[in-house]
Design brief:
Blueprint (H helix, E strand, L loop, with lengths): L15 H7 L4 E4 L11 E2 L5 E2 L4 H12 L3 E5 L5 H10 L3 E3 L6 H11 L6 E5 L5 H4 L4 E4 L5 H4 L4 E2 L8 H12 L3 H13 L1
Parallel strand pairs: 1-4, 1-6, 4-5, 6-7, 7-8
Antiparallel strand pairs: 2-3
Helix pairs in contact: 2-7
Amino acid sequence: MYENPNIPTLYGEISSNFLDKAENISLLICDVDGVLSDRIIYSSFDGNEIKPFHARDGYGIRSLLKNNIKVAIITGRTSKLLKIYCDIIGIDLLYQEQTNKVIPFNIIIEKLNLEKYQIAYIGDDLIDLPVMKLVGLNIAVKDAHPLVKVQSTYITKNNGGNGAIREICDLLLLAQCKLHEKYDSYLINFNK
């Protein structure tokens, strides 16, 4: 059960419903455009796609992975840059060009042998709703489509592509009493 590790949170009041569900999460599934990156797709003159990824989101994902919480990405688009990003961060569950996100979702839960209550999904648009209705903890980014927000247990304080993933990573670790260990290790090392 969640215990307050006396770490101030910048995310405001968090409901006990969210924390109770977050305590059981073993896998976070993320959408990309509008969640891991902003909604703007940048393209160079030679046709190469550029996506901005927030550095804090990457750190949050690595923190989850180090604490045995898996991270998967399911996206409707395909991007070479995303594959490179996943390789750097350590995400090995990447499913691109998925118009029906339920199909890779079912592959993932079978592969990892997880129950639906152990999975969180963060999305921003209507394509995310079918999977969001299947998981134990469904999350929308602050600037998500209104119909996605009303279906969500939690709405981030940060916009997609601007720290929303880090927010969720911190809150999952907080609910599982793992955030204070990371926080304390930095303070201990800093004070030496």
